[in-house]
Design brief:
124 residues, alpha+beta, three-stranded antiparallel sheet, 4 helices, 41% helix
């Protein structure tokens, strides 16, 4: 809908990554199937949907960062794209490190699936 750059910036701001690292894939029916609400006019609810999905990603990332750092997830602080253990910046996991961990390099907690992605259903 012409707003892909804006959407990438929203994701980047939420996850603390460079906008160029965010790939916006509109209307990819090969990956996501039909009927996911994409149309040619922008939805006013798209920023809220992006915030919802990135919030889910950060929640899972915090859980996995806790496992990777051998710390309680709620003891981690989100700071500019990384989960930091208290004030010890040496003990941190960036969102990129957590994504790699989630995709197979680390042990996952029971009942947690691999990967670091999220879907959300949002209606205006």
């Amino acid at each position: 809908d012409g707003n892909e750059g804006q959407y990438a910036q929203l994701v980047a701001d939420e996850l603390g990554v460079p906008p160029l690292d965010v790939k916006v894939v509109p209307a990819d029916t090969n990956r996501f199937g039909e009927g996911h609400g994409f149309n040619t006019s922008p939805s006013g609810g798209t920023p809220a949907a992006i915030a919802s999905a990135t919030g889910k990603i950060r929640e899972k990332a915090q859980l996995l960062a806790g496992v990777a750092l051998d710390a309680q997830p709620d003891s981690l602080v989100w700071d500019n794209g990384a989960f930091v253990l208290g004030l010890d910046s040496a003990r941190a996991q960036t969102i990129a490190e957590v994504a790699l961990y989630a995709h197979g390099s680390g042990a996952l907690p029971p009942g947690v699936e691999g990967g670091l992605d999220a879907q959300t259903v949002y209606r205006d």
